[in-house]
Each structure stands twice: as C-alpha cells, then as structure tokens.
Design a protein that fits this description.
The chain has 344 residues and is mainly alpha-helical. The protein folds into two domains: 22-38 and 188-319, Cytochrome c-like domain (Cytochrome Bc1 Complex, Chain D, domain 2, Orthogonal Bundle); 42-183, Cytochrome c-like domain (Cytochrome Bc1 Complex, Chain D, domain 2, Orthogonal Bundle), CATH 1.10.760.10. It is 40% helix and 4% strand. The structure holds protoporphyrin IX containing FE (HEM) (2 copies). One protoporphyrin IX containing FE binds at residues 116, 214, 217-219, 221-223, 234, 236, 238, 267, 269-270, 272, 275, 278, 281-283, 293-294, 297-298, 301-302, 314.
Length: 344
C-alpha cells in the first residue's frame, strides 16, 4: 500500500540522486582531464611520418647507440613493461647506477617538457641526452653517426626518412626518428577514458569513489590534462617535505635548470597514466607501493592524512588509467660491418 508507494518513490528519488551525482562527477572529471588521443601519433601538431617511425623503432631497440653495444633505449624504457625499467634508479654503462628513476616513454609526447625537471623541451631534444650521458649509454654524437653510417641499410633508411636532406645520417635526424616512434607510444582505451566517454560502469563504485577523492582532495590541481600530469612544476613537499630516503637532499630538481632559489626541490607533476605498471615511484624510485605513494602525496602536497581506505580507493582509481599497451614488434637490425666501431 502506502508504505510500498513511499518506498518506491524514495527508491526512485535515490536513483535519480545517484544519477545526478554520477553526472556531476563525470562533469568534474571531464573539466579536469581528457581522454588520450587515438590518432596514431602527432609531433608538433603534425601526424608522424611512417618511414621515420619505422627507423625510430629500429634505433630505439639498437644497443649499438651505446658505447658498450649492450644498452638500448628499451633497456631502461622497456615497451613490454610499461615503458620503464622497474628498478629504483636506472642502471647504465658499466653497471653504473644513475641518480633517478626512469619515467615511462608511454604518452611522454603529451608532456609539456621532458625529464623529472623538465630540462628538455621535447622528445627530439631529450633523445640526445641518454646517448651521451656517461651513466647511461656513454657515447658521442660522432661515434653514433660513424656507427650508423657504417651500415648500408641505415644509410638507405635515413635517406628515405629524410628526403631532401643533403646529410641524412645525422645525430639530429636520429633524435627526430626516435621522437616520431615515441609519439606513437600512446595508450588510449583505458577504463577511465571509457568512463569519460559516458560508460559509467567502466569504473566500479570503489574506483569512482577514488576519482571523487582524487578531485576533492586536490590531486587534480597538479595532475590534470590528458596525461594527468606532466604539464607543470611544483615543490615536492609543498606542505611537508618528505624524508631524505624519499627526497634525497642532493637532487634539487628544477633548481639545476633555472638556478632560481624557489625552484629547489621543484619537480614536474608526474604523469599518472599507466602508473600501475611503473613502480617504483617518485624521482628517487624509493616507494614500491602505489597506496603508499598516494598517502605520501596527501601529506607532502596537501597536508591531508588520507586513511588506508581512502588511499586504497584513490590507488584503485589510478589503476583504471592503464590503457591499451602498444604491441611493438622487435625490429630486425642491420648487421655491423668492418667499419662499425667496436664495443668498448
Ligand atoms: C628520461 C627516452 C635511454 C633512463 C627519459 C624520457 C624519455 C626518454 C622520453 C623523459 C620522459 C619523461 O620525462 O616523462 C629515452 C630514449 C633513449 C633513452 C629515446 C635512447 C636514446 C635511456 C637509458 C636509460 C634511461 C639507456 C638508463 C640507463 C632514463 C632516466 C630518465 C629518462 C633515469 C629520467 C632522467 C631525469 O629526469 O633526469 N628517457 N631514454 N634512458 N631516461 Fe631515457
Ligand atoms: C608524483 C599521486 C597530489 C605534484 C606523484 C606520484 C603519484 C602521485 C602516484 C608518483 C608517480 C610516479 O612516480 O610515477 C598524487 C595523488 C595526489 C597528488 C593521489 C592527491 C592525494 C599532488 C599535488 C601536487 C602534486 C597537489 C602539486 C602541488 C606531484 C609532483 C610529483 C608527483 C611534483 C613528482 C614528485 C617527484 O619528484 O618524484 N603524485 N599526487 N601531486 N606529484 Fe602528485
């Protein structure tokens, strides 16, 4: 009778309220974030060139870009493991341990600038760094060009990928080809992207609660845009600086780039796409557990003590950012010749 009608009315009102809440959450999420493009890759507003992508894939996997002939880009940015190396700080030439954790190359093309401190403007500028860094590939531009020019197949492919260039086998073109390949490493189709597109059930109740907490707590103030980060710089420890185990004193972040006192311990807000695949976390790579990384952010950046359940919900939301991983075929690489510099 009456009770039943009242119950039904209340039930409907509840459902309508829930639908409103759901729409409000999606509206907030749509304002802060954006789905990943599914356009095959763009560099500086232009679609990538297929011949450059193909050449770039070879270079990305070719360990002869390193002085030892052992280390390729893929060593530290393994495209089968989320585009990173999953160790605290990278191991490079002669088993040297570098100072920072390797960020993923997946979706890196969407970042406003490259590296934890944003010191490279784009992927082409970035690619010249590791080849020369003594703790990474320890090579020189001259030796790289000599190596590539010693293999007829590379000479042909550089010529085809950079037609009209009088000197196609160059260090600059190596970087441009690698950049073109990296621009294809975008991971659309995450459950979160389906949610943004209107598929409410793509996230379960805990994950939606995590999204709500992520927004309400203020995480989205720094981690926003299509890559949920990668766009701007902030002190690590806006409210409370983490201990030296997580924020080593020797690495002052953007201070090294700008020499400005206020940039001490300032880093790029890390992009959070595929974060479930790229542990350990932070530039120091000292935190293995995503829930713990979330809780540290709450304290350090927002002065907010997130309880275990809240940290779990936010981490559950972050795991919905895992997108379709690129299926990259390992390229066949041209054989070395008598003119190829030997490994050292
Ligand atoms: C950073 C690509 C080789 C370790 C990066 C970034 C990209 C990249 C795109 C910036 C990502 C971002 O900021 O979001 C490449 C390419 C390589 C290469 C194309 C080959 C030419 C290596 C190697 C290692 C390595 C061999 C390990 C020995 C790192 C580390 C960073 C980094 C530790 C962060 C450095 C910092 O922020 O100061 N790499 N990488 N990379 N890569 Fe590589
Ligand atoms: C790094 C999540 C709030 C700025 C990270 C990382 C995670 C994360 C998981 C590590 C990513 C990785 O290593 O790949 C969160 C969550 C937040 C939050 C869940 C809310 C509770 C903020 C806020 C800011 C910020 C409000 C800016 C004021 C940064 C920066 C880094 C970072 C600069 C890089 C730190 C480093 O140098 O290692 N965030 N974040 N985050 N976040 Fe947040």
């Amino acid at each position: 009778g009456l009770a039943g009608t009242a119950g039904l009315t209340l039930g409907l009102a509840g459902a309508a309220a829930r639908a409103d809440e759901g729409d409000a959450l999606r509206a907030m999420a749509t304002a802060l974030f954006a789905p990943l493009p599914d356009d095959g890759g763009q560099v500086r507003g232009r679609p990538v060139d297929a011949r450059q992508v193909e050449l770039g894939r070879m270079l990305f996997f070719d360990p002869r870009l390193s002085r030892s002939h052992v280390i390729s880009c893929n060593t530290c940015h393994n495209v089968g493991t989320g585009g990173a190396d999953n160790v605290p700080t990278s191991i490079g030439h002669g088993w040297q341990k570098g100072p920072r954790n390797s960020p993923t190359v997946l979706n890196a093309v969407l970042n406003a600038a490259q590296f934890w401190d944003g010191r490279a403007a784009d992927l082409a500028e970035q690619a010249k760094g590791p080849v020369q860094a003594s703790v990474e590939m320890n090579n020189t531009p001259e030796r790289v060009v000599e190596t590539l020019a010693s293999m007829p197949e590379y000479v042909r492919r550089f010529g085809e990928a950079f037609p009209g260039d009088p000197d196609p086998v160059s260090f600059d073109n190596m970087a441009l080809a690698i950049e073109a390949f990296e621009a294809t490493l975008v991971t659309p189709g995450a459950r979160f992207d389906r949610y943004l597109a209107g598929e409410t059930d793509a996230l379960d109740a805990t994950e939606r609660r995590g999204l709500q907490l992520f927004i309400d707590s203020g995480c989205g103030a720094c981690h926003n845009g299509p890559n949920l980060g990668g766009q701007a710089y902030f002190p690590f420890g806006v409210i409370e600086r983490p201990g030296a185990d997580i924020l080593p004193e020797g690495d002052k972040g953007r201070f090294a780039v700008t020499q400005t006192a206020s940039d001490a311990y300032v880093f790029r807000a890390a992009p959070l796409r595929n974060v479930e695949l790229t542990a350990p976390y932070f530039h120091s790579g000292q935190v293995w557990d995503l829930e713990q990384a979330v809780a540290i952010m709450g304290n350090a950046q927002l002065g907010r003590e997130l309880d275990a359940e809240q940290a779990r919900a936010i981490a559950a939301f972050l795991r919905t950012l895992t997108g379709r991983q690129p299926r990259i075929e390992h390229p066949l690489l041209p054989p070395s010749t008598a003119r190829t510099p030997r490994p050292e």
